[in-house]
Amino acid sequence: MAHYFKQQEQLKRMAEDEDDAYMNAQWANPNSLKSQLQGMAAKMQNK
Predict the structure, then answer these.
(1) CA angle 43-38-29, nearest 5°?
(2) Is the dihedral of CA 29, 31, 34, 37 positive or negative?
(3) Reduced to 3 states, what is the DSSP secondary structure of residue 27?
(4) I need a labelling partner for 45 at 20 to 30 A (CA). Which of 9, 16, 22, 30 fits?
(5) What integer pLDDT is reported at residue 43 of this predicted model?
(6) What integer pLDDT is reported at residue 16 of this predicted model?
(7) How many CB atoms lie within 10 A of CB 29?
(8) How far apart are CA 31 and CA 39, in angstroms?
């Protein structure tokens, strides 16, 4: 019975926490790879 209650509480917390705050994180940037590769190319040209 306690396991069922804990599972229900966890499901409630997960349903309430459906925000997109992670989208502002640097690792979530869809253009990150492109910008890193362009930065590497610029560094190689400066040498």
Answers:
(1) 130
(2) negative
(3) helix
(4) 30
(5) 67
(6) 76
(7) 13
(8) 12
Instruction: Look up the pTM and report it.
Output: 0.36
First to last CA, the chain: 67
The phi and psi torsions of 30 (rounded to 5 degrees) equal -70, -20
Length of the chain counted residue by residue? 47
Model pLDDT for residues 1-47, shown as the tens digit of each residue: 899 999 999 988 877 776 777 777 777 788 888 888 888 766 666 65
| CA–CA dist 20, 13 (Å, integer) | 15
In degrees, rounded to 5, the angle at the alpha carbon of residue 10 between the alpha carbons of residues 3 and 5 is 30
Rounded-to-10 torsion of CA 30, 33, 35, 38: -150
